[in-house]
Design goal:
Largest interface: A-B, 37 and 37 residues
CATH superfamily of the largest domain in chain A: Response regulator
Strand order of the largest sheet of chain A: 2-1-3-4-5
Number of helices of chain A: 10
Largest sheet of chain A: 5 strands, parallel
Number of domains of chain A: 2
CATH architecture of the largest domain in chain A: 3-Layer(aba) Sandwich
CATH topology of the largest domain in chain A: Rossmann fold
Strand content of chain A: 5-15%
Oligomer: homodimer
Helix content of chain A: 40-55%
Radius of gyration of chain A: 18 Å
DNA sequence: ATTGCAAAGGGGAAAAACACCCTTTTTTGC
DNA sequence: GCAAAAAAGGGTGTTTTTCCCCTTTGCAAT
C-alpha cells in the first residue's frame, strides 16, 4: 500500500510542485498540501487524516514549523513529521529535533536523495542518526521552552497594544501578563519589550 | 507550438518539482534545470538553446540572479527572464527590474497565478504583481521623508537601549531624541516604541 | 537685516513598562 | 488522594516612555 504524505509549506508554488514530484513516486501519495500550521491543525483535527509523514516547512508566516511541531507533539505524539528548510538554521533545527521531528531536509537536496529520505523516515522512523536524535531531544526539552500561553502572548508583543490591552485580549489579569513577560525576560535574557518584540519577530512567533 | 522554459534554481528539489509542474501545462516545456547562473551560462553558450523564458532564482550560491541577469542583458539582450524569489527584497528586485528582468514571482504564488504569469510574460513581455509593485512604491516614497538624524535614530529603536542610552550614543540630548520619536510617531501614525521598532525592521532601517 | 523655519534642547506630568516578592488556584505525576 | 509544580493573580515602588507646550540656536532666502 502506498504511503500517505501531507505537505505544509507557505510557498504554494513549491508545495504544489513538490506534490507533483512525490506523486510521481509509485509508493507515495500526497493527501494534502497546506499553507501553514494552522491549516494543518484544522484539517488534522476534523478530517480523520493521519498521514504516514508530514513534510513541514519551517519558515511560514501564520503558524511556523516550530509552533506546528510543538502542537503536533502534544496532540499527536506519534505523528511522524520531517522538517523542510531553505537554509539550515542550526538553532531552529535543533529545536525542531528537540520537539520530536523525525529528520530534516534542505530544499536543495536532489530528488533521488529526497526519495531515500522519505523511505528512511517512513521505514525506520528517522532520517538521521537515531541516537543523536534522542540525545538532542532530551537536551532540548530541558532547555528553554515556552508554555502555550507564553507563545500566545508572544504573538501580541510586536503590536502596539499595551500589556493591559493584551491581558484584556487574552482574558487574563494584567498581572498574569506581567508574569509571562518576566518569565520570558529571564528565559531569553532580555530586558525590554522591544527585545521581546524583536525576538518574537526573529523567531516567527508573530507576523509583521 | 509549446513554449520552452529554462529553470535556474539552486534548490534542486524545488527546481525539479517546478519542472514537473510546468511540464504539466500543455503549452510549456522545461528544456533544462540548472543549479546556478554559471551552469546556465555554459549551456546557453554552447548548446544553441534560446528558451522563450528563463525563470531565475535570485539567491544562489555560485552566480546569483543579479549577476546572471547582468550577464544575460549583455550577451542576450532579447532573452526574456523572470525573477523567482523567496522573500521579496525590494532592493534586489528593483535592481533586477533595472537590468531588464521581465517580472518577478514570489515562490508562494499559487500554481494558477503562476501559469497566468508565464502566459503574461511570454505574450505581453511583462508580468508584475500589482500588489507587490504598489507596496514597493509606497515604501520607497516613505523613505525620503525622514531626516538623516531620524534615520540614524531608527537604527537604534529595535535594540534594548533606552532613549537615554540612544541619546548618549548619538551625542544628543535625550530631549532631542524625544523630538525624533515624536516626529516619527506623527509621520508614521505610530503610538509606541514597539510600533517604531517593527516599522524599522519591516523597512530595513536596522538589521536584526 | 529680518523673517522664516527647522533642528535641538527643555519642564513637567501621566501612563506604561519593569522589578521583586508574595498568595491562590489549577494541573499533573505518582 | 496527595504532593509538587505550573499557571494565574496581587502589591508596591522605580524607571522608562509618552505627551504637550515652550525656548534657543543656526541657517537660509528675499
Amino acid at each position: 500500500m502506498s504511503k500517505s504524505i501531507v505537505i505544509v509549506d507557505d510557498h504554494v508554488l513549491f508545495g504544489q510542485s513538490l506534490k507533483g514530484l512525490v506523486d510521481s513516486f509509485d509508493d507515495y501519495r500526497v493527501k494534502a498540501v497546506y499553507k501553514n500550521g494552522k491549516e494543518l491543525q484544522e484539517n488534522l483535527r476534523k478530517m480523520d487524516l493521519r498521514p504516514d509523514l508530514i513534510l513541514l516547512d519551517i519558515r511560514m508566516p501564520v503558524m511556523d514549523g516550530l509552533q506546528t511541531m510543538q502542537w503536533l507533539k502534544q496532540e499527536f505524539p506519534k505523528q511522524k513529521a520531517m522538517a523542510l528548510t531553505m537554509e539550515d538554521d542550526e538553532e531552529i533545527l535543533l529545536k525542531m529535533l528537540g520537539l520530536g521531528c523525525r529528520g530534516y531536509l534542505v530544499k536543495d537536496i536532489d530528488p533521488d536523495k529526497f526519495k531515500q529520505a522519505l523511505d528512511s523516515v517512513v521505514d525506520t522512523g528517522y532520517y538521521v542518526d537515531k541516537e543523536v536524535m534522542e540525545e538532542l531531544e532530551r537536551k532540548e526539552r530541558s532547555k528553554e521552552q515556552f508554555s502555550e500561553r507564553e507563545i500566545e502572548f508572544l504573538q501580541y508583543v510586536c503590536t502596539e497594544m499595551t500589556y493591559k490591552e493584551i491581558a484584556a485580549e487574552m482574558r487574563l489579569s494584567p498581572k498574569t501578563i506581567d508574569g509571562y513577560r518576566e518569565s520570558l525576560f529571564v528565559k531569553l535574557d532580555i530586558k525590554s519589550r522591544v527585545g521581546l518584540a524583536v525576538y518574537a519577530i526573529k523567531n516567527n512567533f508573530c507576523t509583521i
